[in-house]
Amino acid sequence: MPISDAEQRFLEQVSLVTPWALVERFSTMPRWRPEDVNAAADVIGATLTALGVPFEMHQPEISLSVPLSASVTAGGRSFRAKPPSSSLPVPGGRTAPLVRLQANPKALRSYNRDIATLFGGSIRSVEEVRALVAGRIVVMQGFGNPALTSLIEEWGGAGLIAVNPGVDIHWGTCTTIWGSPDLADLPRKPKIPVVAVNNPDGQVLMQMAENGGEATITTEMLEGWFPQKIPVVTIPGTVEPDDFVLVHGHYDSWDVGVGDNATGDATLMELARVLWQGRAGLRRSVKIAWWPGHSTGRYAGSTWFADRFAQELDEHCVAQINCDSPGCRWATSYHDTRAFPESAAIATAAIRDIVPDAEIKTLRPPQAGDYSFNNIGLPSFFMLSSTMPEHLRQEKGYYDVSGCGANIAWHTENDTIEIADRDVLMTDMRIYLLSVLRVAAVELLPFDWKATAEEFLDTIARYEASSQGMADLTPARQATEGFLRALEGLASRAPTDRNSASLAIARLLIPLNATREPRFRHDPAYTVPPLPTLAVAAELPELPESLRRSGQVELLRGQNRFLAALRAATAVAQKAAA
Question: Peptidase M28 domain: from which residue to which, for each copy (predicted)?
């Protein structure tokens, strides 16, 4: 869609002066220890004050696990290591025999708990891998992520050494707990030590494992509940001020974290400046938030906000837009843009209107990136921002990472000022601004529920085909087709009626497509497939005969949840169309 005159006036106000100054300031400020994170929040607050933009500074206590040190000792040698956040602290060391598992190279950063995905067929059953792993320290290529850590622990492993792909060691996290834990989450706190080593050292350790060696892992962590600051700007709309768009990103980082996420913090700051100055042109309000606890709290800052303001978000938030790793060097492609189906067209159009020749592909958001609002049911788009064209990444010999515009400085000490690019940052700031305007400044909310329903039908068909005749998803398919028919009647209704219906439909269908847990609880931090309560249909042929009846029970319950949600969404659409 063409850029309107009103949108153009906003876009013309975007400048690099304030955001680049923030990037430069943060490039000198490590932001992962609790006191340093709060100091960075004060910089954000002081910058907003200097701009004349009002804000609130919340200061909740959130649960953090901050890596201090780690090492691996084996064969008379000591190897440098980093523990991911939430690793079990073992300052006195844990010693056990080593065992090597062969990772699937395509799943190096996967959050999937499926054995075939993680190991590429080299391991065929849980019994086989449990016999290999129990009582041993696993050493394998990849990152010490939550899905893998939880599996190694379930299999009785004594620890995990993740062999990173390059010469640098990447920080990360290894807990499946999303945000600060409640009582039900606590049993999932990792009970094994996890460390990462670089590839040259990892090759030595994997060979030691092949030769029957043993190793000692030592990890030291700072853990507890810490007061952490959360700056939030509210820019009031002029027509529907109670309703709002939430735009957000994390300001804590590993070391100085320029590409992840000082550039995102700068983008949010420029949005706050431009939108505050042009607030008379906003129909709905815009909230802009900077989160702590992303890196060392597994999204504890955004999760606190989701919990504390759940009722306001439920009633009035029309969309959430995540801002992570924009403005990085060489990042001129948008082939890894994240959006749920109802929001994909908004993201695509905003990118296309700013960068007409861009390569754009929208993908399902993973269970990551401060997407702490799926359980409420917020339409969502963007996560990681622009990235390197794939051919350039391959030419540089870079392995796949989860940020920094595909620069392998991601989550290392090398994520410094040279990772940021002024021109790319200007482009990405304009994309974010345009996308915000197209939700906050328009009369009709632009979410496409037809696209969501059509994706549901594709997912249902895929699961049913994979079930090899063991699952009948006809009721789910018919309910989705009925919902599509009900949507047709909405087209001629007034925007107020359609907006109200859209909000209600979002609260029903987004949790259905993205969560297993009930609303207002947070799913574990590993991959959630589309329509997760129906996904067991595709797994039935692979289940042992002894488990298939239980699988059928799970599917029956999951399809009941699906049918109830589709019936409610259909009723919403029919009522609005009447």
Answer: 232-425
Across the strands, what pairs with 163?
Answer: 141, 197
**Does residue 55 carry a pLDDT above 70?**
yes
Q: What is the pLDDT of residue 145?
A: 85
Phi, psi of 277 (to 5 degrees): -65, -35
- Give strand pairing partners of 288: 233, 247
234 or 103, higher pLDDT? 234
Q: Give the pLDDT score at 122.
A: 67
CA distances to 209, 218, 220, 312, 462 from 92, rounded to whole Å, are 22, 6, 9, 47, 50
- What CATH fold (topology level) applies to the domain 5-60+228-440? Aminopeptidase (3.40.630)
Strands 317-322 and 380-381 turn out to be parallel
Residue 4 corresponds to which amino acid?
S
Q: Which residue carries 């550039």 as its tokens?
A: 263
Rounded CA gap, 505 and 144, in Å? 37
Rg of the chain over CA atoms, in angstroms? Answer: 24
Q: Each residue of 440-497: pLDDT tens digit?
A: 999 999 999 999 999 999 999 999 999 999 999 999 999 999 999 999 999 889 999 9
Tokens of 288: 């802009």
- Cα separation of 429 and 426, whole Å? 5
Q: For residue 401, give both structure tokens.
A: 């990472």
**% of the chain at pLDDT higher than 90:** 91
Whether the CB-CB separation of 507 and 314 falls below 8 Å is answered with yes
Which residue has tokens 């004594």?
158
Peptide bond into 199 cis (omega under 30): no
pLDDT digits (tens, 9 = 90+) for 201-213: 999 999 999 999 9
- Buried-exposed string 55-64: b where 16+ CB fall within 10 A, e elsewhere: beebebebbb
CA angle, 520 as apex, 516 and 525 as ends, to 5°?
50
Domain boundaries, the chain: 5-60+228-440, 66-223, 449-577
Closest CA to 447 of 524, 501, 395, 403: 501
DSSP line for 550-561: HHHHHHHHHHHH
| Strand-pair partners of 287 | 234, 246
Closest listed residue to residue 440, CA positions, set 247, 232, 231? 247
Helices (H), 27-133: 34-51, 115-119, 126-133
Q: Which fold has domain 66-223?
A: Glucose Oxidase; domain 1 (3.50.30)
> Would you tell me how many other CB atoms lie within 10 Å of the CB of residue 466?
16
Distances (CA, A) of 564 to 558, 568, 578: 10, 6, 21
3-state secondary structure 259-298: HHHHHHHHHHHHHHHHHHHCHHHCCEEEEEEEECCCCCCC
Query: CA separation (Å) from 176 to 302, 367, 393, 524?
Result: 16, 10, 30, 5
For the stretch 65-119, pLDDT in tens is: 999 999 999 999 999 999 999 999 999 999 999 999 987 766 666 666 676 677 7
Report the amino acid identity of residue 301: G
